[in-house]
Design a protein that fits this description.
The protein is α+β, with helices and mostly antiparallel strands and about 80 residues long. The protein contains three helices and four strands; from the N terminus they run ββββααα. The protein binds zinc ion (ZN).
Length: about 80
């Protein structure tokens, strides 16, 4: 079964290889294909960099320890991924 991405209008097999799982949708998959989702995520982070940083700063002020630990875990995971590539 093929599924058309509602963003780029390209057709992909309707599997989790091409779409992310979305339990709230009828098909169980997101309307956007994975390339669109990751492109959007990149774009979002780029255009909302200030907001993201500000909210990071805010949560750090509220709970410095937990935030630091979260960031460390994230960086660790990021490095692991890099190494695996
Ligand atoms: Zn797409």
């Amino acid at each position: 079964m093929e599924k058309v991405c509602t963003r780029c209008k390209k057709s992909y097999p309707a599997t989790t290889e091409y779409f992310r799982q979305d339990r709230s949708s009828e098909s169980g998959l997101t309307g956007w294909c994975k390339p669109c989702l990751s492109e959007y995520g990149r774009e979002y982070r780029r255009t909302h960099r200030e907001e993201i940083n500000a909210s990071k700063r805010r949560s750090r002020a509220l709970d410095p320890e937990a935030t630091l630990e979260k960031e460390r875990a994230y960086q660790r995971a990021y490095r692991e991924r890099k190494r695996g590539e």
